[in-house]
C-alpha cells in the first residue's frame, strides 16, 4: 500500500477546507461578503429618506434612531465628553473676551456637553429643530429657556452670539444658503460655527449627512474668522483639526451684499 507524503496530505486538507467550509466558516464568509452590500442598502435607504423628508423629519429620525451611534449623546459623538473636551475648556474665556451676555445656541441638541458650563451667567436660549429634544431639555433643565427653531425659516431671537456648532456641516448647500440669509436678517453680533481650516474643497451632501466644511472657502467665502477656537478631542483621529470659527456678523453681511 502506498503512503502519501505528509506534504500532500496538508495540501488535500487545505483544498477540502476551502471547498467545504464548516458551518462557522460559512457564516463568517457570508458576513464578510454581505457586510458591504448591507451598508450599501442602508445608505441607499437613508438617501431616499433624507430626500423625501423635511428638515425636521430628517433630524427627528436621526435622533430617534441614534444614527450617529454615540453612547453618551443622541446628538452625536461631537456632543460627548471626549469630543467636546477642547471647547469646554476654552469657551468660557472666549465668551468673556467677546463680552458676550446673551447666547442663542442653535442647535443645542440634548445639552450633553454644554450643560457642564455655568450657563446661568448668560441670557441663554437653547434651540433645536427636533421637538422631542426641546421637550426633554425643558424637563431636565427647567431654569433654562428652550425653543423649537429651524435656522432656515424661523424668526431668530436676538443675541450677542449665535452659536451653531456642528450645524452647517449637516446641511446641503441650499439649506446653508437659506440659513445664512435668515441669520443675516436677524440681530447678532457674532456668529460661531464649526469649520475645518485644513479642508481645501467643500463638498455637497444631503441634509442629514455629515462632511467637513471650511467656511473660509467657496461657496461660503467667510474669509479669516475674528477668532478660531480649538474644538474636538485632544487626540483627533481624523487628522483634520476641528475648530469653532467666530465671525462678526456685520463683516459677513458686507461680504454677502
User: How many discrete domains?
Assistant: 2
Biggest sheet: strand arrangement = 3-2-1-4-5-7-6
Which percent range fits the helix content? 25-40%
Q: Count of DSSP E strands?
A: 7
| CATH topology (fold) name of the largest domain | Rossmann fold
H-E order: HHHHEEHEEHEEEH
How would you sum up the global shape?
Answer: globular
In whole angstroms, the N-to-C terminal distance is: 95 Å
Biggest sheet descriptor = 7 strands, mixed
Q: What structural category arises from helix and sheet content? A: alpha/beta
Residue runs with pLDDT of under 50 for 5 or more positions: 8-20
The Cα radius of gyration reads: 24 Å
Features:
257 residues, alpha/beta, Rossmann fold, seven-stranded mixed β-sheet, 7 helices, 38% helix, globular
Explain how this protein is built:
By secondary structure, this protein is α/β, with parallel strands linked by helices. The protein has two domains: 1-48, no CATH class; 77-256, Rossmann fold (3-Layer(aba) Sandwich), CATH 3.40.50.150. Helix content is 38%, strand content 15%. It has seven helices and seven strands, in the order H-H-H-H-E-E-H-E-E-H-E-E-E-H. It has a seven-stranded mixed β-sheet. Strand 4 (159-164), helix 6 (173-184) and strand 5 form a beta-alpha-beta unit.
